[in-house]
Amino acid sequence: MTFQKSITRRNFLEKSALGVGTLIVSTVLVGGCADHNLPDPNDPNQAGSFEYGVASFDPTDHQIILWTRVTPATGAAKVMLTYQLATDASFNTVVKTERVDASSDDDFTVSIDLSGLASNTTYYYRFFITNTTISSVIGETKTLPKGNELNEVNIAFCSCSNYPAGLFNVYSAMARSEADVILHLGDYIYEYGLGQYGSNPTTVALGRLPSPPREIIELDDYRTRFKQYRSDPQLQLAHQKKPFICVWDDHEVANDAYKDGAENHQPSEGSFSVRKANAIKAYNEYIGIRTNTDSKIYRSFSFGAILDLHMLDTRIIGRDKQLEYGTYFTSSGQLDAAAFQKDWLDPQRTMLGSEQLAWLGKALGSGQGTWQVLGQQVLMGKMYVPAELLLAIVQLIGEVDQLGSARPATFAAFQTLLLQLSQIKARSLANDPTLTPTELARIKTVLPYNLDAWDGYPVERERVYALAQGKKLITLAGDTHNAWFNELTTAGGTKVGQELAASSITSPGLETYLGTSPQALGGFEQALALLVDDLVYLDASRRGYTLATFSTGKIKSEWRFVTTISSPDVSTVVGHTETITR
Fold first, then answer.
1. In the structure, what pLDDT confidence band is assigned to residue 471 with cuts at 50, 70 and 90?
2. Quick one: CATH architecture of 25-144+155-311?
3. Is the pTM of this model over 0.70?
4. Domain ranges in the chain?
């Protein structure tokens, strides 16, 4: 889907406030402008329903994208719709209305980019099938502030919403929160089929079977999967109540995707470039993104004097293939450290690509907000863990994936190792003179935990830090299914900012491998925070989102968790709070 950038002729309703107020210009993004006669009210093609609700995307201080999808009642190739935008929920003051065609070419979705709006203003909107009384629900949205209009901004951010894994209670919590805008940092959908990742003992009972039941590859597959997710009432509520700013991660295409392929794409599944094009088209049909090219999702947003938000694509457009530790083990089972380090520190390896990196440098340099915030997919903070612990984690994960649970002896050995390393690290921090060189080597011989994150691209991470020099840098992340708070430091140890990372909507976290025992989970969380120098906070088991309240003087971040994703009877708790001062 290519966004149309032509200005359309404006049609006004009787109650329109235009002509006496600010002119609002619309840019029709999906579906052509229906600048023609009203359809016959008895036309059978002018029938259908708005069963996927409404949504708004990419707010600025004068723009917003409105979205809906109509389900035709017949086999029509298009249905004419009319939208209304008002400053009140009763639509007594309609400030904009226009007719647009919902076409089969874009799966009957429409996205309409409105500009000329007032800043820091709440608007209400709805869609009709033109010349009928069939209407959508009423959506609520809000433009961003400019200058010093607001003293603080509330941003909720989330990621990893796996439909078969459980109920979308987190979306409902965000819809009812004080958030001004919701950021979705990727894995909005998952590509897997029935019985694959995400499916669990509650999937059938909760009616969360994936549709289609197979892994999605074709365009119609991705469209069907998006429709299933957008049929969820809690996700619909979040979109109805809050504007969204979104970026994709890997599962919108396939697991562990990079620019030329993915772990979950096999030669028997056809061309990866065709599959990626199918995924991107469906994504742009169901998610509003204001860029000139469907495949480019990096863009910036200004929240007045408070912050500038730079949304990145760390996954599809520029990423070189991830390194894998398995490639570097010798026949004797030893890690070829020299070969690994050579490739790991290769200055040519990139996550963003040269074009996006250059854009980011300009965006950071021109940002006028107190905080420069990167909204992106994967952890940026260094997660360097003792090498022997990493090997133990790999063994633990391997047994759980193969056997359903780790062998008791393996888990006991893992717990013993964790305790030993924690004790050594505590003694080191206390400057214990009795520590031996061998003991110190056990905690100082470290490896990056996740090569799919920024840890796998350390040279480019340093370049990003250099671009942000002199700025108050904050990164937001998802992807891991766990909650984190990290200090951001350069390879030389200089502090450059902080990272806030949200848990998942439903995707399982480290409890899959560690079990649900509070003692085991708590012990692991404390041990890892001790062993990883830049890690401050970890929650390894709960589902939720993060609410960050930004002002020019500080950021207050709350990690909020729902009590269950197995039942709609749910409450939300604040699991942890961090305050970052200017």
1. very high
2. Sandwich (2.60)
3. yes
4. 25-144+155-311
